[in-house]
Amino acid sequence: MAGGSEANVNESRRVVPLNTWVLISKFKIDYKLLRRPDGTFDRHLAEYLDRKVPANANPVGGVFSFDMIINRGTSLQVRIYRPSFEQEPHQLSITDLEKPVDADIVPVIVFFHGGSFAHSSANSAIYDTLCRRLVGICKAIVVSVSYRLAPENRYPCAYDDGWTALEWVSTRSWLRSKIDSKVHIYLAGDSSGGNIVHNVALRAVDSGIEVLGNILLNPMFGGVERTESERRLDGKYFVTLRDRDWYWRAFLPEGADRDHPACNPFGPYGKSLKGINFPKSLVVVAGLDLIQDWQLSYASGLEKYGHKVKLLFLKQATIGFYLLPNNDHFYTLMDEINSFINSDVNSNSE
Amino acid sequence: MKKRDHQDSCSSSYGGDSGGPSSYGKAKVVWEDELDASGGMDELLAVLGYKVRSSDMADVALKLEQLEMVMGQEDGASLSQLQNDTVHYNPSDLSAWVQTMLSEVNAPLTDPAQSLQTDLDFSSLQNYVNAESKQTQLRFSDDSEYDLSAIPGLAAYPPRSPPPPPMQQPEPPPPMQQPEPPPPMQQPEPPRNKRLKTAIGSSSTNPNLPSSSSSSSTVIAAPESTRPVVLVDSQEAGVRLVHTLMACAEAVQQENLKLAEALVKHVGLLALSQAGAMRKVATCFAEALARRIYKIRPQDPLEATYNDILQMHFYETCPYLKFAHFTANQAILEAIGTTNRVHVIDFSLKQGMQWPALMQALALRPGGPPAFRLTGIGPPQPDNTDALQQVGWKLAQLAETIGVKFEFRGYVASSLADLDPAMLDLGSPEMETISVNSVFELHRLLACPGAIEKVLGCIKAMKPKIVTIVEQEASHNGPVFLDRFTESLHYYSSLFDSLEGSGLSPDSEDMMMSEVYLGRQICNVVACEGPDRLERHETLAQWRSRMGSSGFDPVHLGSNAFKQASMLLALFSGGDGYRVEENNGCLMLGWHTRPLIATSAWQLSPTVGNQ
User: Fold this and answer.
1) CA B325 – CA B313 distance, rounded (Å)
2) Coordinates of motif VHIID in the sequence (chain B) (predicted)?
3) Which of A3, B49, B251, B351 sits a CA distance of 20 to 30 A from A297?
4) Mean per-residue pLDDT of chain B
């Protein structure tokens, strides 16, 4: 069913504020321009249209940021966001950027932006803004990863980059919380970023790197089967099955179908998570997201394996609700993320 | 929207705030979801990079709806047309963008033969080759077409061969072939030379270098100063080195020269333990600091020829200059359209490396090339050779081989401020389309009070169709020495880092000369003051402000230029780290996410005339 019929437009207009509708519709149109029917992607136009912001070592709103290349081989770059220091010198010197953290516990959130594996990067304005907000809300340091994008870089590149970032973060002495001289790491991501969170956490199991929690925000999962929510919501709220299929074809190895474990972790080729040391998860599902059935299965799949899951189901939320702070879901989400992370902080410092 | 409780949680001090999660729930942040900090723009969208007036929101939404309808099927004809043929401009302005998109779909396809989108260099060749296929995604595995040396224009000069036979043209031969150029083409050189020899370098030197700038030219502060910093790996020793450099600069700022002296020696030692870019940067900055501390006179700024040579090596090593030329040329091409006569005034001709590519593109213009007139400005030569004429002569040879009518004039000036439009023999706007081009030149005027204003006025008097400006994207002209030092340290670190990524052997002449080239800039920024400090780089935001208030309107460089610039970069080994970014219609080239140079294009504001 084509997404764009008048009924669908009216439907999506009803449930989000006008400026949100404009924003997400703009993305929808942009992205459509970029996806070619033959499976190729107009990367140059994508880079041109994407609104980007530079890092800023001058604190703004109590947060400063800087970029770092953590792997020259793949040009893997991260953007690091920190709360500004209490006594501010005339200008932050380059040596202050990696000043060791000063508190007993500082959560470090490794963030993977969304974009269905093909779009965006850490310096995309929507994600730069989101990460800045996370710093303030969670009193955390955020490390946002510009992983390699599909279709130029297919599975497992994004996961490899995620893993590299995790390793890098875990070995930074300046990120260690004072209480135990360890880096307190949480993984977070939206859409494809949520998918990356799961897969990086999986790789971390038995690696010696402890991940304290996973935050999956509208994570991108799927499968060959068409679920009820997919059929019901196809094209209704900005997203179509057709575009979902395109992105999986662009990310998954050539010839693979959507039951590949990267897409369908609890599907026929999925790995068992029984008895492993997997972090607790916060899974956020938007009630108007057509892939919610997969996301809900993911959450229940984790539970079945005995892992701790908090499911946040936001019935009237669409994709991208967290990009603008102009709706209740946004605040609910931020509260939840904060609780998820800082309940550990509080229990640790008691 | 519902009102929310106030508490700006972002600005609460780190670690010292009122407790945990439950209290946050009460302390919701207030963001104005209505206007109105800046002209009724929706603030939330503005933060995300989109400028839409709140009052236009509904209209924009409607148009987006329409656009979606029209785009229709994923593999339909409308979508295909939009994907392949549309050139985008200023994607931040949603209202304008969606209008343009809608009109693109509604208007019939323009006849490609009349298209003004003349592509430069390899791209035009590429289009020629792939004429039938709609393949806009280029596969870089086919090397032959992207062999840089084979691309005309980027090979700077025609091979040395006997002069070509006289062309079968009705027009008189280009003036370069005659020892005494005919009067309309050129005025006799020597008297002009003498008249214009006002040397900036011979002004009194400044024995006392104050710690802060004494320049009285107005420094236009950027509206919000941003410090984009890109680091590469944190190494303990590297951090110590930077720390020491900063401490030294701070000592200089505080005029504690004894301490500064000790520190600069220490830096020298520490630098030896580093490798690669870090070592070179540290060494350059240490030398510059030493010059400042010991009040060693700056290098002679009149060594113009030497600098030209250095710049040529820099040109070969990394894409910054090529990008500058490329994007400026693209803007010029788009602006001149179907004119019959183009007159480019190049504010610093140097070796004329920018022009072969433009001439090539002009030659390939559908409908035939316009006549191309080039006025190249350059400083007087210490040995009185006529460097400008030599460059003009080489360009004339090239013009002949590719069939472009070409005229050249050299104009010697020690400073652009000495320019007098009346001397340039400009045709009227009906007769020739005038284009003013300045690559890394305008910032030098900021060393002299009143100079930039004079030059901008001069440009306006020329009545150009387009003004192309390329400048370093850096804030190296602030009033506080320490800030300038810090900024330039970051800037040149990124630059040197990108050189390293170029894959050239560190011992190659190109590499070493490029380092000397950059090192001289660093010395100037750090060790010089007053009229000697010429490398007064300012940011795009500052230049925008200046141009805007001087009677110029921006001309946007679009997705076409962006795309081609990106493709050009991909040809460089180490091309991986280079990034092109669009910024409100200007294009910036950076190393990873640190923008390093910015190209902008300008036209006269309609109401200009009150100079």
Assistant:
1) 15
2) 342-346
3) A3
4) 75
